[in-house]
# Entry
Amino acid sequence: MAYGPKRGRRDFMKAAGAGALLSVPMINLGYYRLGASERTYSARAIGIVERAMVLDMLAIPKIDFRPEVHAKPMTAQEKAEFRASGITGIHNAVGIGGPGSREQALEFLAAWQGYAGRNSDVFSLVGLVSDLERAKAEGKVGMIMGLQNADQFERASDVQFFYNLGLRCAQLTYNSLNRIGSGATERVNAGISDFGVLIIEAMNEAGMLIDVSHSGDQTTLDAVELSPRPISFTHSNCRALNEHPRNKTDEMILKLAAKGGVMGITGVRNFVSQREPTTIVDYVNHIDHVVRLVGIEHVGIGTDSDLNGYDDMPADQNTMLRNAYKDSYAFREKIDVDGFDHPRKIYDLTEELIRRNYSDENIELVLGGNFARLLRATWK
# Structure
């Protein structure tokens, strides 16, 4: 990516805390282009992202179902997009389940931690919050390894086993019923089982973040109550704004916040709104709802996509993705949110928060400060 600003404007942007990001002259009224993009951002937004620890608590490095994708080296364009994204850390997790879950989990951890190691000029693996702080200082993207299910835990002792392999976050259930509880699209609204109680205890003992983003209603409420440490909805939205089984009720959000948890808002179109168009304005409405309900300290981001989103996937993979879910997911023509489907979407989010009169300090909490606090409280 080419960088070529005039010296005077570079000096100005350094004073604003974002000199390394500026690549072409000011457009007007303090707005700047980043790199070769036609999008423009304010000096204030650029400065906030430059300072913040930006944590996307559900972000896949690359949405591609081919098993060999993790073995390929990153292209120069892919590296440039990550470096320009403003993101400090991603929670890399996929859904697994059913027979062979343990092997699926082991393969996932080996493949993507290997991918991070082979692309160590872009990524660094994360086991502690200090690893995220180091990634920020080094201009890298910290990779937190997670799984969107707990079927890999065949016994409670497996939690520590997987923690030792690098797993730092796990959902208790995906969309279906398992030995722990119910998923969000399951007909049965069961709570946490006796086995699930043991898994929650083991996750707290190991220092692994509990996630219930895809869990059913009673499983979600039970998990919040049973865990002595705060837990998370790493990538969920508000059912008060959109009646969807993957979204969380106000009761769940209130109980999560009362225990110190954090909710990450996802950018999957059908979770955000039932109306068209669905834009970044609708996305930030969910942030506003959480803030009004429980305060600024309990909301963050969990985009549930890679840097570019889902809608530019190959047609056969897009079809495969849609066919993997029940009709209750209610997919529409697009899966991404308009204006939130490109590598610099964090800057667009920051601009929308600025337009809504959020302070710099509070925007930094939303971008990642709240999740950093949660990880300090749960990880060992």
